[in-house]
Amino acid sequence: MLIFGERINGMFTDIGDALRNKDPKPIQYWAVKQQEGGAHYLDVNSGPAIPTHERVEAYEWMVNVIQEVSELPLVLDSTNYDAIEAGLKVCKRPAIINSCPAEQVKIERVFPMAIQYNAGIIGLTMDKKGIPKDAENRVAFAMELVAAADEYGVPMEDLFIDPLILPVNVAQEHAPEVLESLRQVKMLANPAPRTVLGLSNVSQKSPDRNLINRTYMAMAIACGLDAAIMDANDDDLVDVAATCQILLNRSVYADSYLKVFRAR
Amino acid sequence: MSVTLVKEKYSSKVGEVVLGATAEQGGTRTSTITVGGDSALPFLHFEGETKNRPVIAMEVTDVVPAWNEMIMNQIGDVISDPAAWAKKCVDDFGADLIYLKLNGADPEAENRSPEDCARIVKDVLAAVGVPLIVEGCDDSEKNNEIMAVIAEAATGENLLIGIAEQDNYKSIAAAAMVHKHTLIARSPLDINICKQLNILINEMGLPLNKIVIDPTVAGLGFGIEYVYSIMERARLGALANDKMLSMPIICTVGYEANRCKEAYASNEEFPGWGDLADRSVLWEAVTASGVLQVGASILVMRNPAAVSVVKKNIADMTGK
User: Fold this and answer.
1) Where do the CO dehydrogenase/acetyl-CoA synthase delta subunit TIM barrel domain residues begin and end (chain B) (predicted)?
2) Are the C-beta atoms of residues B194 and B166 closer than 8 Å to each other?
3) What ipTM was assigned to the predicted interfaces of this complex?
4) Using an 8 Å Cβ cutoff, are A231 and A237 in contact?
5) Cβ A260–B192 below 8 Å, yes or no?
6) Is A175 on the interface with B (CB under 8 A)?
7) C-alpha B272: how far from its chain's center?
8) Are A124 and A144 in contact (CB under 8 A)?
9) Is 70 exceeded by the pLDDT of residue B252?
C-alpha cells in the first residue's frame, strides 16, 4: 500500500502563502513531516494560489525545494501539463503524473510525456462530461486508459487508475460503485494496472472525517486499492494501511509491523 | 510463434554480509568471505545475480563428539584437537569456514570457563586463515557468559557468533556490537519470530548487515519442508524489499541430518534402507542441497564426504 502525502497543496493556506512569498520553509516542513508520518510519495499541487501564467515556474521551484530536504519521489498534481513537464524535468527520481482523464487529446499529451520522463500516470475514470455514477462506466473509462498504456508502451504497473471517490454526504451512492470499480479494474490486464484514490474526498464536509477516511480505506484496500493520496500524518490512518498489508498477507507479520511499515 | 522467456522483476535483493577480517581490517584472517547479495531466486541467473556462491562451514567441537563412525573415521586423530581438526577441514576437506561449537562449556558437561573457551577460539584462529563461526553450548545463561569473553578476546576478527534468540538476545547482541562481530539470529521455524527478532536486534543498534538468519533447519524426512517454505518466503520477502527478512541464511544441516536415524542406522538393522556408507553421506548432502534451492548462504556440515558432494553441487549450480 503506497501512501501519497496530500499536504503540499496550495489549497492549504500555509502552502498558498509559501508559494506567493517564495518561502520554501512551509513546503519543506511538510515534505519532512509527511515522510516521517509514513508517506512513500509526496503529492505536489500549487492549487489556485499562483496565477496560471506563473505555474510552470512555480512547479519547478516547488520540486526543487522539496528535493532539497526529501528523497521521496513526487506526484505532480496539476491540470496544467506544461507545469507538470517543467516539474518532471527537475525530478531526481521517477515521478507520477497526476492526472490524465480518458480523453484522447490529453492522453496524447500525457502518455508520451510519461514515457519520456519514465514517470507513472494517474488515470481518471472520467471524460469531459464528468464523473460517471456507476461502476460499469468507470471501468469502461479505465479500459480506455489501459488500452492507451498498451499503445504507448507504459508498463501496466506504472498506470494508477483512480475511480474517483466523491463525498459520502452528498454522493453516497458513489462509494459502493467505486469499490466495485476497484475490483473490476484489477481484471482489465495482466499484470493489472495499479489503483489509487484521492481518499480524503470521501469525507469532505462530514463530521469525524478521520473515521470515514480510515474505514473507507480499509474497504478499498480489500477491493484492490494499491495507493491513496491521503493524510500521511493521520497516524490511525497509516496504522490501518499497515494492518491491511498484514491481513492481506502482503507483508510478513512481525509484532512490530506498525513500526516496520513506517521504516525506510 | 516465438516463446518469450518470463523474467521476474524484483525491487530489492538479499543483503550482503562480510565474515572475518584481514590484517588491514583489524583481524588476522588471510581472506574474508562475503555471503548474500542475490537479486533473484536461488541460481536463477537469467533474471538476477547470484552474487556470492553459498559457502560451507565445517563443524569442529571443543570436546570429542559422539558422532557416527563414518564421520569420525574420516576426521581421524585430530578429532581431539580443535586447532588441528580445523586445519584439516580447511586443508584436506576444502571448508570455506570453520564452525566452532563449544559444547565443553555446558555446565552439565565439562563446564569450561569462559577464559578456557576463549583460548580454544584463539587456538583455532591461529591454526586457520578462514573466518570463524563460534557458537556456545546449549545452556543460554552460560552461553552469554562465554560469548562476552570470546567476543572481547577476538575483537577485530569479525567472528559470526551465536546464538541470539527472541527471549535471549540482548547480551550477545551487545557483545557483537561492542567488539564488531556478526550475529546469528535463530528462530524456531517461525518466520514471524524470525522477522521480529531481527527488528529487536536492529533496534539495539546492530546494523542489518551484521545479522545472519538461522531459521532452525530440519533434517531430511524430519520436517525439512517446513523450513524449506519458510526460507522461500524469507527470500521472496527480501526480493520484495522487506529489509527485516533480507539477511543471508545459515543452516546447521550437519547437526540436523546426522541425528536422523537414516544417517547412522546400520544395514543389518534396516536392510531395506541399503548401504549405510552411501546413505549417511547422502542424508546430509541431500538435506544441504535441498536448502540450497531456497537460498541457504552458509551450510554448516560435518561429513567430509558429504561436503565434497555438496561442493560439486554448488559449483554446478553457480557455473563456477
Assistant:
1) 16-252
2) no
3) 0.87
4) yes
5) no
6) no
7) 33
8) no
9) yes
